[in-house]
C-alpha cells in the first residue's frame, strides 16, 4: 500500500523522497533526473533498485508517463510530460542546493490539523469511537481468550482526541457503553476478534455481538474488501501515516505479558498500556487518512472510494469469522 503524491504535496508534506531519489542519481553517476531516466529506461520499462535484499526504489515507463515509487517512504509519484519538467527542476534545485527544502507538515500533522477543525469529529453527524483490546495468548478459542485491557479514543469537545483506559474491572461497563452508543465503533479486525472477546468476557449474548457488529467500522475488512489483500495494521499505518507499533515482535510482547501476569510487574503493565493506546492511535490515524484522502494505492493501481464505501464495506460478512486469529499481529 502506498501514498500517491502530487508534486505540490511532495513539496509540502514531510518526506525524504527527493533525498532517496538523489541516492539513485549518485548510484547511476547521473547529474540530473533527465539523465537518469534516459539511462535506466534503456534497460527496460520497469526498473528495480534494492539494498540488502529490500526494494528501495522502482521506476516504470508507461510511454506518456513515468511512475516513481519510493519503497522506503511508500510514496508514489506519477509524472506526465509537464510534471516531468517540473520534477526535473525540483531535482536540479535539490542537487545544486539552490533551494532550501523545508518540509511543512507530516501526514499525521495534516490529518490532526483537519481533525482539530472539526471536519472528522463525526461521521454523517453521528459520533464514533476507536478501540482496541489486549488479551492473553490463547486466541484459538475466543470464548476462552482472556481480556486483559483496552483503550478507546473519543473525539471530544474542542475537537481533541480523548483516550479512555479500560481494565478488567471496568470491561462490563465499557461493553454496555458500546452497546448503548448511538454512533460507530471503529476498530481493526474488531468484528472477528475484539468485539467477540469483549462480549464473551462479560457473558454477553449472540444478540449483543450482532448489535455491536452492526455499528462497527472494521478497517481490516474494509481494506480486504477494497484490495482483496489481508494486510496487518502495522503495514498499513507505516505506509500511510508513518506510524508503527511500539513493540517490534511477538517475542517482546510475550515477555512483557509474562512479567505482568506472573510478577505483577507494573512497569510491564505500563508498556502494555502504551502499546494498546498506540494501536488505537494508529487505527484512528488510518481512519482519518481514509476519510481525508478517500484513495489507496496498491502497486500501480489507484482505488478510490466514498465515505459510504468506508462505512458500508467495513462490515461485510466473511466466510470464516476467525480470519485474523493466530495471524502475526506485528505485520
Summarize the helices and strands and which ones pair or pack.
Elements: E1 3-4, H1 7-12, H2 17-27, H3 33-40, E2 46-51, E3 54-61, E4 66-70, E5 75-79, H4 81-96, H5 107-116, E6 127-135, E7 147-156, E8 160-167, H6 171-180, E9 183-187, H7 190-201, H8 206-214, E10 216-218, H9 219-227, H10 233-241, H11 250-263, H12 266-293, E11 295-298, E12 301-304, H13 307-312
Parallel strand pairs: 1-5, 6-9, 9-10
Antiparallel strand pairs: 2-3, 3-4, 4-5, 6-7, 7-8, 11-12
Helix pairs in contact: 5-12, 7-8, 10-12, 11-12
Structure report:
This protein has 331 residues and is of the alpha/beta class. Helix 5 (107-116) crosses helix 12 (266-293), helix 7 (190-201) packs across helix 8 (206-214) and helix 11 crosses helix 12 (266-293). The chain is elongated and about 65 Å long. The chain has a five-stranded mixed β-sheet with strand order 1-5-4-3-2. It contains 13 helices and twelve strands. 45% of the residues lie in helices and 21% in strands. It starts with a strand and ends in a 19-residue tail after the last helix. Mean pLDDT is 89; it is low at 318-323.
Amino acid at each position: 500500500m502506498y501514498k500517491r503524491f502530487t508534486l505540490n504535496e511532495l513539496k509540502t508534506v514531510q518526506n525524504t523522497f527527493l533525498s532517496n531519489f538523489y541516492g539513485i542519481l549518485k548510484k547511476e553517476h547521473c547529474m540530473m533526473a533527465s539523465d537518469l531516466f534516459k539511462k535506466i529506461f534503456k534497460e527496460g520499462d520497469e526498473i528495480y533498485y534494492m539494498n540488502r535484499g529490500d526494494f528501495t526504489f522502482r521506476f516504470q515507463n508507461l510511454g506518456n508517463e513515468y511512475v516513481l515509487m519510493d519503497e522506503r517512504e511508500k510514496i508514489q509519484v506519477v509524472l506526465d510530460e509537464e510534471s516531468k519538467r517540473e520534477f526535473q527542476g525540483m531535482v536540479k534545485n535539490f542537487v545544486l542546493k539552490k533551494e532550501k527544502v523545508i518540509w511543512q507538515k507530516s501526514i499525521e500533522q495534516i490529518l490532526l490539523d483537519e481533525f482539530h477543525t472539526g471536519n472528522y469529529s463525526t461521521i454523517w453527524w453521528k459520533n464514533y469511537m476507536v478501540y482496541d483490546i489486549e488479551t492473553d495468548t490463547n486466541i484459538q478459542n475466543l470464548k476462552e481468550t482472556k481480556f486483559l485491557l483496552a483503550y478507546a479514543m473519543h473525539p471530544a469537545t474542542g475537537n481533541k482526541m480523548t483516550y479512555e483506559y479500560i481494565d478488567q474491572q471496568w470491561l462490563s461497563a465499557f461493553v454496555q457503553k458500546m452497546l448503548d452508543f448511538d454512533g460507530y465503533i471503529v476498530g481493526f479486525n474488531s468484528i472477528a476478534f475484539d468485539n467477540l472477546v469483549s462480549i464473551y468476557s462479560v457473558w454477553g449474548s449472540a444478540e449483543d455481538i450482532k448489535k455491536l457488529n452492526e455499528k462497527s467500522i472494521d478497517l481490516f475488512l474494509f481494506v480486504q474488501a477494497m484490495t482483496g489483500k489481508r494486510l496487518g495494521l502495522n503495514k498499513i499505518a507505516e505506509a500511510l501515516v508513518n506510524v508503527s507499533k511500539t513493540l517490534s515482535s511477538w517475542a517482546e510482547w510475550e515477555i512483557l505479558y509474562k512479567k505482568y501476569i506472573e510478577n505483577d510487574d507494573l512497569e510491564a503493565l505500563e508498556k502494555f498500556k502504551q502499546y494498546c493506546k498506540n494501536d488505537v492511535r494508529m487505527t484512528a490515524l488510518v481512519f482519518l487518512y481514509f476519510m481525508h484522502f478517500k484513495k489507496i494505492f496498491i502497486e500501480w493501481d489507484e482505488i478510490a472510494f466514498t465515505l459510504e464505501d468506508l462505512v458500508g464495506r467495513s462490515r461485510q460478512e466473511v466466510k470464516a469469522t476467525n480470519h485474523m486469529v493466530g495471524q502475526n499481529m506485528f505485520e
